[in-house]
């Protein structure tokens, strides 16, 4: 941005400098007039122009605009080229500004780096506005005007936490923790109770995020198998995760293992084109295990870094389809030792407690190792995040907070909690 300004300034400094040369000869036609009455005026003009040229040269050498001040009275002469005089002044005034921009550029870069984290938190807070409205703001309203912690407050708090998708078991643990602190006189007012709840909810999330980093294998491709029920956004999530790996400089291959849903293969191929990555696909209704079988061989032969495998959406209650998932996983392990290295479950955060049931049954079938929560920018209730972490003891890898490519965020417990509990935005 600063470079663009410097180019603009340099152009302005160079172009007007030529205008005195093009405008000064304009007096020549008047000088050729045979009228003797103009002769005196011509001599005066010639004298003034010579003085102007000398002043301009001195001004450029000294790089100051102050030297041109004595030329202002020239504007009263009827024939003098007075409008041309301020142009060199403007040219000389720009030069020091360009120098100033060059000096201030490092400071601007440092200031931008310092503001990057708050800016990210603000964007995340804005994306979570509906989630915050459904949970945090109701919590604020509950504590508003309360002067002491009593049984009525705990009853209202229990109802709020359960309706915020924290679940009965998690809610009881939170309230028991708070009651113990009140009994020990560690909490004296509702505001301190709110802070205690915030810290406890944060602990539910952080305790199981220590191993949240995706660890690449020492050799061979890193295979991620993506599972979930219908409509949670598995294929879109795969496309956005592929974008992250491509930006990190990894070679990526997508596998269209969802051969059941109409247009699922085409959708994944579109994501492959957007990211510039190869997609292994077969005709609709093909055996997904055979697609995965071929994909593992291709991944080893071409030495891809990351392989993302899409699977057909299925209800966690459909036993035959869950058996098909187990078969796909077995085929991966046979063709590539250790695969899949990550079994990622995608959950729609708006489904609430049903998401816990999905996670448990998918875990029984294929052993999930990571979770992605989508649609947190919708009407989701923030308690589902803490509840899933506590119930499943499985790290959350990503959260989806919008439709854009960059709206699939790496999950950071600290940033999420701060954004969730942020005061109402101005």
TrEMBL record:
<feature type="binding site">
    <location>
        <begin position="228"/>
        <end position="235"/>
    </location>
    <ligand>
        <name>GTP</name>
    </ligand>
</feature>
<dbReference type="InterPro" id="IPR036225">
    <property type="entry name" value="SRP/SRP_N"/>
</dbReference>
<feature type="region of interest" description="Disordered">
    <location>
        <begin position="1"/>
        <end position="37"/>
    </location>
</feature>
<dbReference type="GO" id="GO:0005886">
    <property type="term" value="C:plasma membrane"/>
</dbReference>
<dbReference type="GO" id="GO:0005525">
    <property type="term" value="F:GTP binding"/>
</dbReference>
<feature type="binding site">
    <location>
        <begin position="310"/>
        <end position="314"/>
    </location>
    <ligand>
        <name>GTP</name>
    </ligand>
</feature>
<dbReference type="GO" id="GO:0005737">
    <property type="term" value="C:cytoplasm"/>
</dbReference>
<keyword id="KW-0963">Cytoplasm</keyword>
<keyword id="KW-1003">Cell membrane</keyword>
<dbReference type="InterPro" id="IPR003593">
    <property type="entry name" value="AAA+_ATPase"/>
</dbReference>
<comment type="similarity">
    <text>Belongs to the GTP-binding SRP family. FtsY subfamily.</text>
</comment>
<feature type="region of interest" description="Disordered">
    <location>
        <begin position="62"/>
        <end position="117"/>
    </location>
</feature>
<dbReference type="InterPro" id="IPR042101">
    <property type="entry name" value="SRP54_N_sf"/>
</dbReference>
<comment type="function">
    <text>Involved in targeting and insertion of nascent membrane proteins into the cytoplasmic membrane. Acts as a receptor for the complex formed by the signal recognition particle (SRP) and the ribosome-nascent chain (RNC). Interaction with SRP-RNC leads to the transfer of the RNC complex to the Sec translocase for insertion into the membrane, the hydrolysis of GTP by both Ffh and FtsY, and the dissociation of the SRP-FtsY complex into the individual components.</text>
</comment>
<keyword id="KW-0547">Nucleotide-binding</keyword>
<dbReference type="GO" id="GO:0005047">
    <property type="term" value="F:signal recognition particle binding"/>
</dbReference>
<feature type="binding site">
    <location>
        <begin position="374"/>
        <end position="377"/>
    </location>
    <ligand>
        <name>GTP</name>
    </ligand>
</feature>
<keyword id="KW-0342">GTP-binding</keyword>
<dbReference type="Pfam" id="PF00448">
    <property type="entry name" value="SRP54"/>
</dbReference>
<dbReference type="InterPro" id="IPR013822">
    <property type="entry name" value="Signal_recog_particl_SRP54_hlx"/>
</dbReference>
<keyword id="KW-0378">Hydrolase</keyword>
<feature type="compositionally biased region" description="Acidic residues">
    <location>
        <begin position="100"/>
        <end position="110"/>
    </location>
</feature>
<dbReference type="InterPro" id="IPR000897">
    <property type="entry name" value="SRP54_GTPase_dom"/>
</dbReference>
<dbReference type="GO" id="GO:0006614">
    <property type="term" value="P:SRP-dependent cotranslational protein targeting to membrane"/>
</dbReference>
<dbReference type="GO" id="GO:0003924">
    <property type="term" value="F:GTPase activity"/>
</dbReference>
<feature type="domain" description="SRP54-type proteins GTP-binding">
    <location>
        <begin position="395"/>
        <end position="408"/>
    </location>
</feature>
<keyword id="KW-0675">Receptor</keyword>
<dbReference type="Pfam" id="PF02881">
    <property type="entry name" value="SRP54_N"/>
</dbReference>
<protein>
    <recommendedName>
        <fullName>Signal recognition particle receptor FtsY</fullName>
        <ecNumber>3.6.5.4</ecNumber>
    </recommendedName>
</protein>
<dbReference type="InterPro" id="IPR004390">
    <property type="entry name" value="SR_rcpt_FtsY"/>
</dbReference>
<feature type="compositionally biased region" description="Low complexity">
    <location>
        <begin position="62"/>
        <end position="95"/>
    </location>
</feature>
<keyword id="KW-0472">Membrane</keyword>
<feature type="compositionally biased region" description="Basic residues">
    <location>
        <begin position="1"/>
        <end position="10"/>
    </location>
</feature>
<comment type="subunit">
    <text>Part of the signal recognition particle protein translocation system, which is composed of SRP and FtsY.</text>
</comment>
<dbReference type="InterPro" id="IPR027417">
    <property type="entry name" value="P-loop_NTPase"/>
</dbReference>
